[in-house]
Write a structure and sequence with these properties.
29% of the residues lie in helices and 24% in strands. With 631 residues, the chain is of the alpha/beta class. It has a seven-stranded mixed beta sheet with strand order 5-4-17-16-18-19-20, with helices on both faces. Bound molecules: 5'-O-[(S)-butoxy(hydroxy)phosphoryl]adenosine (WT7).
Length: 631
């Protein structure tokens, strides 16, 4: 155990976790209601929480808008002149926005969107790289009640297209292109391809970043700058019900099609506001650097909404950690005097490999708290991060959460004793446990299903257009023999996370990994079935099975077992083609590491591929229950 200093404990918002945890457990509704009152509401709620199995609705009857709390309420206070963002481009360009300037840009775009005829409830797909327009676009949508669906800029044409179709987006916001290391990624081309047969998309708004040549479709396409040039810097903020949707964010699950996770204005703002504040001990002079991209939930919650709700300054770097050189991030920490730094284990492991000389070149003494997210962090990487980056003086916060949870769920606080590799204990108002297939808690240090036993304010609202999927994934998951029809009472609440974990004798949680067919590659969430469909779309492929395999840097790597159609030759050229195919259909993050050609896949008698058996064989582990295996 690593204990925090007396000073850290004394100065933190919550010096005694156990005491407050027990207190909140007695009355979580009162706790969350009090926190919610720290934010502004057009109308207060009638009910803090309503449970209508399988939906928890927070702050019912309340009216608010997350953008009111993120921007509007500061405009007549000194925060208006404080920096909301400092952005640095890969080429060294710096852009700074005070809360006032950010608000003006958001208003101009919001007015621009209105001028295109967009109305409350309409969906907008945002396919932008890590530039300020990405953040401005999200806020402009939310301000006027449009539902944003951000698609990570690394996703390919097909992935983008499917997300635009599912979200029924009428407008797409993109860039001309963007620099990525020494290349220019021509992302507008992807948009043109993706929507060429989609009449639903009436407008494409193009932000200028790379200045590359693009083709524009008159009547449909409009430059961002032209759209906003005549727009007013004042725009009224739409009054939203607390339970109105704020965004849809697609994430992979166990089936081929990504799920559209919906989050609300009301509950989501309360959850992200408080978790960031207490977990990273947010103070008004903080310089916050979260290395994620707003294309993922980490960026939504902790680059955009959480930091703005706390009125702090966020630093954003456009590019990757090791470009132009391997010390880039550390140089940025020094240059901007970053105080709180939040990143993913993959990045830590690769930067650790480059050696201590890179961080040693820079003054990292501004850092006060370090964070990690996205996948389990191995103790070796944890210790390196803690010692070399944190000089053994910064609490290292390993936050466990999900796209669906919207906010940190299992996490240390700055005042918590730490165990390298453990994500510590549940946040206030959150009850978590590790259970067996019958929902019974397993003994100490035993692996089981990680479940959440209480609803929390930023819990997903639903899966867009697929309530059945919502029910069957999170509440009536086939892995559990319980939880069916657990109707009205909260005492039966059991949210299935899809993760396996252990709890130790001190009540600390240790995440083992996913127990469904989700693969975590460099912290990115991919579904086996999604990858398999990309393989099968190739004319030479008859069948494919994909598994995740432990990988030293990336956490997991992708291995594919492919059965070719009769007469196809298993050549290296074909392997390369297949890799390319997956990159084209999903994106570079999904590039398979290994492909093997085989003749037969282990299947159940009903014909389902048993990936579990393939994985056990691959790792030389016992095969487990194979009674359903077809011989
Ligand atoms: C899955 C959710 C939440 C932001 C980024 C990922 C894994 C997340 C941790 C952690 C071990 C973690 C889980 C989870 N995960 N954080 N601190 N330790 N595993 O969001 O893409 O929705 O993925 O990421 O497996 O279920 P996501």
């Amino acid at each position: 155990m690593i204990f925090p200093s007396e000073k850290t404990i004394e100065e933190s918002y919550v010096p005694d976790y156990e005491k407050l945890y027990a207190q909140v457990k007695e009355d979580p509704e009162a706790f969350w209601a009090n926190i919610a009152k720290e934010l502004s509401w057009f109308k207060l709620w009638n009910k803090v929480i309503a449970w209508d199995y399988p939906y928890a609705r927070w702050f019912v009857g309340g009216q608010t808008n997350i953008v009111y709390n993120a921007l509007d309420r500061y405009q007549k206070t000194p925060i208006a002149d404080k920096l909301a963002y400092i952005w640095e481009g890969q080429d060294g360009t710096v852009r700074k926005y005070t809360y006032r300037q950010l608000n003006e840009e958001v208003c101009r775009l919001a007015n621009g969107l209105k001028s295109l005829g967009l109305k409350k409830g309409d969906k907008v797909s945002i396919y932008l790289p890590r530039i300020m327009e990405q953040i401005i676009a999200m806020l402009a949508c939310a301000k006027i009640g449009l539902v944003h669906s951000v698609v990570f800029s690394g996703f390919s044409i097909e992935a983008l297209k499917n997300r635009i179709i599912d979200a029924e987006a009428k407008t797409v916001i993109c860039a001309d292109g963007y620099p990525y290391k020494d290349k220019v990624i021509e992302c507008k081309k992807n948009v043109d391809e993706a929507i060429k047969d989609l009449p639903q998309v009436e407008h494409v708004i193009i932000a200028k970043r790379a200045g590359n040549q693009i083709t524009t479709n008159p009547g449909r396409d409009i430059w961002w700058d032209e759209l906003i040039t005549k727009q007013d810097t004042i725009c009224s903020t739409e009054i939203m019900e607390a339970t109105d949707p704020l965004f849809i964010l697609y994430t992979s699950g166990s089936t081929g099609k990504p799920k559209g996770v919906i989050h609300s204005h009301g509950g989501y703002q309360v959850g992200t506001y408080l978790t960031l504040k207490w977990v990273f001990d947010i103070r008004s002079d903080d310089i916050w650097f979260c290395t994620a991209d707003a294309g993922w939930i980490t960026g939504h919650s902790y680059i955009v909404y959480g930091p703005l709700l706390n009125g702090i300054t966020t630093f954003v770097y456009e590019s990757v950690p090791d470009y132009p050189d391997r010390g880039k991030w550390w140089s940025l920490v020094e240059k901007y005097k970053v105080t709180k730094f939040y990143t993913a284990p993959t990045a830590i492991r690769s930067l650790m490999r480059y050696g201590d000389e890179w961080p040693k070149k820079y003054d990292l003494s501004s850092l006060k708290i370090l964070g990690s997210v996205g996948e389990p962090i191995n103790p070796e990487a944890w210790l390196w991060y803690y010692k070399t980056i944190g000089r053994e003086q910064c609490p290292l916060i390993d936050t466990w959460w999900q796209t669906e949870t919207g906010m940190f769920m299992l996490t240390p606080l700055p005042s918590s004793p730490l165990k390298p590799g453990s994500c510590n204990k549940p946040f206030f108002g959150v009850e978590a446990d590790v259970v067996d297939a019958n929902g019974k808690p397993v003994p100490v240090d035993t692996q089981g299903y990680l479940v959440i036993k209480t609803p929390w304010p930023s819990m997903l609202m639903d899966v867009y257009k697929n309530p059945k999927k919502y029910l069957e994934t999170y509440f009536e998951n086939e892995a559990l023999n319980i939880n069916k029809n657990n109707e009205a009472s909260f005492s039966n609440f059991l949210y299935f996370t899809g993760d396996s974990a252990k709890k130790d004798k001190d009540g600390y949680f240790w995440i083992v990994g996913r127990n469904d067919d989700v693969i975590k590659v460099s912290g990115h969430r991919l579904g086996s079935a999604e990858l398999e469909s990309a393989f099968v779309a190739h004319p030479a492929v008859a069948e494919a099975a994909v598994i995740g395999k432990p990988h030293e840097i990336k956490g997991e790597s992708i291995k594919a077992f492919v059965i070719l159609k009769h007469g196809q030759q298993p050549t290296d050229t074909l392997k390369e083609e297949l890799k390319k195919q997956v990159r084209t259909l999903i994106g570079p993050i999904a590039t398979p590491d290994e492909i093997v050609f085989i003749d037969k896949l282990p299947k159940t008698r009903s014909g389902k591929i048993m990936r579990r058996v393939l994985k056990a064989q691959e790792l030389g582990q016992p095969l487990g229950d194979t009674s359903t295996l077809e011989q």
